[in-house]
Amino acid sequence: MSKTAENLKEALAGESQACSRYMAFSEKADKDGYPGVSKLFRAVAQAELVHARNHLKAMDAIQGTVDNIKLAIEGETHEFKKMYPAMIKDAVEEKEMDARHSFEYAMSIEMVHAKLLKKALDDPGANADAVYHICPECGHTVMGEAPKKCPYCGVDASKFIEVA
After folding, report:
1. Do the domains at 3-58 and 129-164 have one common CATH topology?
2. Measured in Å, how far apart are the chain's first and last C-alpha atoms?
3. pLDDT tens digit string along 80-92?
4. Which long-range contacts (CB under 8 A, 24 or more apart) does 66-69 make?
5. Model's pTM, two decimal places?
6. 129-164 fold
7. What CATH number was assigned to the domain covering residues 3-58?
8. For residues 18, 111, 96 and 137, what is the CA-based torsion angle, rounded to 10 degrees?
9. Domain 63-126 classified CATH 1.20.1260.10?
């Protein structure tokens, strides 16, 4: 791999992490009563997302939709079959229960994501009017109505985030 390719990969990881971090910081600023800071963090997070997307384009890592779905299934499957089980084992051995629960939620939901993506791969043109609901606690993702309670963490349906 060339030095530039390595740099793009590192930059993508950094920008992606910054985007996630700043979105979390925005939520915290809102809860703490600082709406101006919250907006700033959301704006900077969006800019970081633009940077990440540009790096992906420079890496030629965005393919056709069907290939992108296949790549996403591969990534989600790797996470729930290999990555998270190993991380959970380490967290248990180190008695890091918050990390363990975070990893367990993620592992469970990555399986859900893989199933949703496999369904999309079967018919990429379907579900144009679909509405998805995301649990804000564990990330559980459902197409259609949110369940009354999240089956993974118990969050009430009213808290789910709608993605239409």
Report:
1. no
2. 39
3. 999 999 999 999 9
4. 66/121, 66/124, 69/117, 69/120, 69/121, 69/124
5. 0.89
6. Rubrerythrin, domain 2 (2.20.28)
7. 1.20.1260.10
8. 60
9. yes
Q: What angle do CA 20, 155, 115 make, to 5 degrees?
A: 65
Contacts 24+ apart (CB under 8 A), 145-153: 152/105, 152/108, 152/109, 153/105
> Beta 141-143 vs 161-163: how paired, if at all?
unpaired
Residues 6+ apart with CB under 8 A from 140: 108, 109, 112, 134, 150, 151, 152, 153
Asked whether 112 and 141 are in contact (CB, 8 A), the reply is yes
What residues have CB less than 8 Å from 24, skipping those under 6 apart? none
Ranges of residues in the chain with a pLDDT under 50 are: none
Tracing tokens 């363990």 back to the chain, one arrives at 100
- pLDDT, residue 95, reads 98
DSSP state of 60: T
> In the chain, where are the structural domains located?
3-58, 63-126, 129-164
The continuous run of DSSP H or E covering 141 comes out as strand 141-143
